[in-house]
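Running co-folding for cobalt (II) ion.
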Amino acid sequence: MTRSTDAKEARLKAVRRGMRDIGAAAAIFGLSSNLRYLTGFTDEPGERLLCLIVGCADEPTFIVPELYAAEVRARTSGFVMRVWRDGETPEALLSGAAKGLSGVAGRILLDDTLWSTFALSIQRAFAGREFGLASEVMEGLRLRKDEQEVGVMQRAGEIADRAYEAVTSQKVAGLSEIELAGRLEAEMLAHGAEGVAFQTLVASGPNSAMPHHRAGARRIEAGDVVILDFGCRVAGYCSDVSRTVVCGDAPAEVERVYDAVRRSYVAARDASRVGTPAEAVDRAARDVLVKAGYGEQFVHRTGHGIGLDVHESPYLVEGSDERLEEGMTFSIEPGVYLPGRFGIRVEDVVVVTEEGERPMTHAPHELKRVA
Ligand code: CO
């Protein structure tokens, strides 16, 4: 048995233990990061139902559209597989599963991101049961990353670093935001990424004042502040990094805001210790920006957990008293946004260890001037 099969079995065992602890009879996973975590297989969800039913006692069962059958068989092991064909519906298989679980008391947990259309079919097949969310069990399992998970996240970080270096050492003035985003993505794929973690953000000039501006047709010109926010996937795990660069010379105010954001970032890093409540990290970052006069312009939380999903627990936000533990991975990304003018953000993902936090990306933090 391979090491990864062992790891998958341990994860399934942990899911069952978790279900028993909260009185659940089964959990049903769709095409999602949870499915990948448990089986190694996932894909983009589509209109055909593909799900894994993990009961407390019997063997976990895949319900699979025929066109996926060979791939699921090749990429997973240790699961029962029930196949349905185009021209049929999966309802009979769902009813069969419901009947199989009829003697087991407890709620049915549904994958949090399962499409409503599937959730409703499952609810019909399991009529009379109570339902809950799979995150009740899965969140706790995925919160702390093991050595293998941290290793692939580091690799995803290195690839992002290389892409940044390659793209910002070339001329960017005259490129559209979309073209620059395309270059970052191509570099990440060329360096071994299996895909992007999310649609690359390139926000130039006044667009940089919108924290989630994607990338548009605007051409980058001399004097622009440009926020690059990007990441890739390795073995399903994400990197996420932001750097703000300036095209040509930076006005004094850009330097001033940049310096405040950088100090805010350092304060959050320093606060990221085992045992610290998540909200204390947010407060550490926010205090610096409030003192610098930019508190009102820091319009989002300080960071988010990351792993198989780009955004997952823990969230570094006021009101979260969740304590940091070894193996937690999250972004630290304070930003200041001056509407209509420019924005600044600096972001790295870190992993918490007993010795302190360690970043996954290492691109320098000084304000970089690009041509
Ligand atoms: Co992020």
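Result summary
Residues 147-168 form the longest helix (22 residues).
Residues 147-370 form a domain with the Creatine Amidinohydrolase fold (CATH 3.90.230.10).
Job closed.
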